[in-house]
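Translate structure to sequence.
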């Protein structure tokens, strides 16, 4: 009898284990990391992923601490710019990582990206991957993770647009719903993706490229993606003027509801197959800081827009002022300053 009970417990455990997997959601957290990018993903199989780490140590690590994350299965560096990799350095310092996904582009204007790559190599259990375009990443059997863009062959540059266009772009599909993660891919990368994958781009959600800059989210691309939801990752009052008014207008024109990370982390939960009837739509937590000011300007009859629209001259002045202030403030942090000047 005792043996029977033991066997029964094992079967019960297996049953409930798989039942719970079938119930599992795919969760995206578009983390408020200031002027940068970081997306934390909880996969239905219990594993996790982090796409970029934002521009500072603190914010992404505070977020991961709040979720008691000590290990990450998949870390992606979309491209080697400081607003994407700096936060990852602390992640590698304080947590174990199983897989690191990187492009083959080297940012010769920065040293920190290579420090990060060395950290990934130094973790003995961590494997570095350089995924190819069209490759599917083996994250979870129930989730399709396809690479739509990256730079597969080694090259060096200090040109910011070229670096952006090397971004690892991921199309993540679960239970019939797709989320497109663009990194900082700009219009040239979008055009390449359109050429290669013209008939498989339709997505429920688009993590808009390059922080909502005007250099990304082209009409042609949006016409194929047709996002219902667009997530924009940027810091309040940033010196780059992100997001760009015209880019937001284009996103809205193609039907996207806009969500921003500037004041709060945004979440997007994709329901498990069994839950589909209960939760017909993926759930996104709506939080629109300054909604009236920033996003509620409609398409049919645009109202007065209060997005601070700066002239090029004003933008240049703002950037210079910010950098001079930073040099005064962070004078000793040479790496950080030189990277900021490169961005400028
Ligand atoms: Zn960026």
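Result:
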């Amino acid at each position: 009898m005792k043996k029977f009970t033991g066997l029964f417990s094992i079967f019960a455990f297996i049953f409930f284990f798989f039942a719970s997997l079938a119930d599992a959601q795919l969760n995206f957290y578009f983390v408020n990391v200031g002027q940068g990018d970081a997306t934390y993903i909880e996969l239905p199989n219990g594993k996790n992923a982090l796409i970029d780490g934002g521009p500072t140590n603190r914010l992404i690590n505070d977020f991961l601490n709040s979720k008691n994350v000590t290990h990450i299965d998949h870390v992606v560096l979309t491209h080697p710019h400081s607003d994407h990799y700096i936060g990852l350095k602390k992640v590698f310092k304080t947590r174990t990582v199983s897989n690191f996904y990187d492009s083959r582009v080297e940012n010769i204007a920065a040293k920190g990206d290579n420090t990060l790559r060395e950290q990934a190599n130094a973790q003995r259990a961590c494997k570095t991957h350089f995924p190819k375009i069209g490759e599917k990443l083996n994250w979870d059997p129930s989730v399709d993770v396809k690479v739509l863009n990256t730079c597969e062959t080694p090259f060096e540059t200090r040109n910011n647009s070229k670096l952006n266009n090397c971004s690892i772009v991921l199309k993540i599909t679960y239970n019939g719903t797709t989320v497109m993660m663009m990194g900082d891919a700009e219009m040239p990368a979008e055009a390449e993706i359109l050429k290669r994958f013209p008939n498989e781009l339709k997505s429920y959600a688009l993590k808009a490229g390059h922080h909502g800059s005007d250099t990304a989210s082209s009409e042609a691309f949006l016409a194929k993606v047709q996002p219902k939801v667009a997530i924009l990752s940027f810091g309040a009052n940033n010196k780059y003027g992100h997001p760009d008014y015209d880019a937001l207008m284009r996103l809205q024109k193609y039907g996207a509801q806009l969500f921003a990370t500037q004041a709060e982390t945004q979440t997007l939960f994709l329901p498990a197959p069994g839950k589909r009837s209960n939760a017909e739509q993926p759930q996104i937590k709506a939080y629109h800081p300054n909604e009236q000011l920033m996003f509620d300007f409609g398409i049919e009859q645009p109202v007065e827009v209060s997005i601070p629209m700066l002239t090029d001259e004003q933008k240049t002045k703002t950037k210079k002022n910010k950098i001079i202030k930073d040099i005064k403030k962070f004078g000793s942090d040479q790496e950080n300053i030189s990277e900021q000047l490169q961005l400028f």
